[in-house]
Every structure is written in C-alpha cells, then in structure tokens.
Amino acid sequence: MACLELDSSQFLLNGDGNVFGSPFDIQLECNSLTGSKAVQDHSRYTLPSQCTNTPDPPPLPGTSYGIQRTSWNAKACRCVPEEIQDFWDKLFFEAYQYDLRVLTDDGNEIMSHSCVVGIKSPVLRAMLEEAKVQDGIRQILIPGVPSEAVHVFIRFLYSSRFEQYQMKRYVLHLLVLSHVFSVPSLKRVCINQLETSFLSPENVVDILQLARLCDAPRLSLICTRMIIGDFKSITQTEGWRVMRQANPCLEQELLESLVEEDTKRQERARRLEENKVYLQLHEAMEALIHICRDGCRTIGPRDQTLKSSQAVCRFPACKGIELLLRHFSACKMRVPGGCANCKRIWQLLELHSRMCSAPETCHVPLCRHFKDKMQHLSRKEEAKWNLLVSKVLESKATTSTISERRNFSSLKTQCYVLGSQVTSIMH
C-alpha cells in the first residue's frame, strides 16, 4: 500500500470566499483491476424443411432468431384459457369419480384424483405408490398444517388458482407444503406474495427462518436486508425474542451481517469523501492553469494585460487559488514547513507539473523546475505522486461519465415524449 500524506488544513476558497473543507490527509491505495472478456453465445436456427423426407439444411451460424422464436412459442403455450382453468376447478370441487382421500390432522377429508396429484408432485406420487387401497380409494395423510391450507394446496395442484384472502392467511403453510412436496410453481407464488405484500417488521424474523428452511435464498436475502435496515425496531419484536432463544446462531449471523454492512457503509462514505478531495484538486489544477495562462480578476498573465471581461470566472476554485498565489508571492516566511499556505501552493504547483504534458510552453510557475526534480526522487516517492495523479484524473473522468449518463437519460426521455406526441398527432 502506497500512501501520500498531504496537509489537511484549508487551502481552497470557493466563489463566495468560503474555505473548502478539503483534507489533504488521504490514504492512496493501489488497486489492481482485472479485465474479463465476454464470450458471445452464438445461437443457431434451423430452417424448417419443405417435406418430411428431405434432410434439414445446415444451421445458420451466429443467429439468435431461433431462440427468440422458441421463447415466444413457449410464452404463447403458457397462456392457459379461462375455460380450461374453470374445468380443472370444477373437477376439484365436484370430485367427480375421485380415487383419493387426502386426510388432515383434524380429521377432514379432501376428495381428489391420484393421477392429478401424482403428476404435479413427485413426492405425492411416491406416497401414492405406498398408500393402501380400500374399495379402490387410496388414502394419504398430510399432517402438521390446517386442513384449509391443505385444501388450498390441492386446489392449486388442479388449476393453479387460489383466493387472495386464503393466500394471505396460509401463505407460510403453503410455502412449507410447496417445499416439502416439491411444487416449484406454488413455491414461486408464495415467495412472490411474501416479498411484495406480506413482509413486515413484525414477521420478518419468522419468515427469514422459514425461508432458510425452505431453500428460498432470494427471500432470505430480502429478509436479511430488511432486518439490517431497521435493526433497532425489529429487535424489539416478539419474533426476535423467540429467535434469540431458539436459534442463537442465527442471531450471531445477523449481528455479523450488521457489522459488515456498517463497515461497507463507512468505506463507501470514505471513498466518496476522497473522491471529493480528488475532484477539488482537479478543479484547482484547472483554475491554476486558467490564472497563469489567461488571467483572472486581479491577477493577469506575465506577458498579457488583464482584460475587463475576465472579471467573471467560471472556475469554482479560482478565487482560492488567486488568494494563495498572492500570499505565496508576498510571504516573508521562507523556512521549510513554516507557512502552511505556502506549503499548500507548493504542493499544488508540484502536482500540476506531474500532470502537465507541455512544460516548455506552460505558463504555470516552476513547472519545469519540478519536472527536473522528478529525476532525483526515490521510487517510493515517485509511486506516491503517480498514484495521486491517477486518482485526480480518475475522479474527473468518473464525474464526466455520470454527467454524460444523466444527459443521455434525459435525452431518451425527451425523445420518448416527442415520439408519443408525434404518434398522437398522427392518430
């Protein structure tokens, strides 16, 4: 790790005369970036043959139309008409020629068809193969959940339908049933309902434990983020108190996740603050070049006369640099480390010389002097300065990229609005 220590005092003023709170005590870390190449997936599309006896022509390379057409056909096949769903609902409720009784803990019986239940759930199929047959009717037991939840579960196996009030009441039971009996379609519905409608600070701890038991990683992650985001209030709930007694390992895991998230938040804030410092340094370099080349306010270049039109400046750091240059030219304290303001402008001049690509024609004072001084620095000092230069340049590039993205997004919005207006006019 390379580190360059610079003075943390105030050194820049903005256009209002206020001092920039820009610390120079920053830790510069060398980060290695590794690039990765994206491998393009070339799909193949086979043209349909004209007749059944002739072989298919060879596939066309690098065409993705085949995959798109296949996905469209699959989506079209998934659109089940209402009449079909009504038919399966009617078959379930009327139990016409049923051959299976599903028993619950409270003694209720749900009449159904073994062929339907066995096709939708491989676990239930295995249970049916071992079930006893009496008078041509099989019987299986689904214990541990209310009979109403089993009723909603069996109905979903028929028609993939449910009533919203039933889902709200038995969603946790249905999640368990879908996991135990391996019904992924119902499991996706339950997870989606929990994520979008039923998750709250009062039940998030219970749902987190259930999501971990039912192998629902996305739901588990959402619950963990919710607990970390509202940790203080959630720790006061009854679910948290029960979890602490029954599952202390999960409590320790959540506390570690909270500490990790807080560390990441502090690291992001530190990097954001460092980027602000690097951006201020870049603005200071631009203001320094502007003052020495064109002149500004009361300071003009050595070989030109200051124009009256230069009284208004667009560089935010120009006034602070101007005051530092005036102090530097009139300061009588010439001992090393004696004057903090002189030390700041000296560092800025040296930083400029390392960023300057034309020292022979540069108007900034001491630019050539610092270029010659670079030849006598140690490798460690040279690496520190090079890292600082790269950080300053990267901060400006990052800011420009974000600005371009925002401009592009606003341009897209304007084009969309304009297109909507043109369409409405044409119609």
Radius of gyration: 36 Å
Superfamily at the CATH H level of the domain at 275-301 and 313-413? TAZ domain
Distance between the termini: 65 Å
| Strands side by side in the biggest sheet | 6-5-8-7
Using the coordinates above, name the CATH class of the domain at 275-301 and 313-413.
Mainly Alpha
What is the CATH topology descriptor of the domain at 275-301 and 313-413?
CREB-binding Protein, Chain A
Strand content: 5-15%
Uncertain regions spanning at least 5 consecutive residues: 1-52, 60-77, 411-419
Q: Averaged pLDDT, please?
A: 74
Task: Give an overview in words.
The chain is mainly alpha-helical and 427 residues long. Among the domains are: 82-198, Potassium Channel Kv1.1, Chain A, CATH 3.30.710; 275-301 and 313-413, TAZ domain (CREB-binding Protein, Chain A). The protein is 59% helix and 5% strand. It contains 16 helices and 8 strands. The protein has a 4-stranded mixed beta sheet with strand order 6-5-8-7. The chain starts with a strand and ends with a helix. It comes from Oryza punctata. InterPro entries: BT1/2/3/4/5 (IPR044513), BTB/POZ_dom (IPR000210), SKP1/BTB/POZ_sf (IPR011333), TAZ_dom_sf (IPR035898), Znf_TAZ (IPR000197). This is BTB domain-containing protein. Pathway: Protein modification; protein ubiquitination.
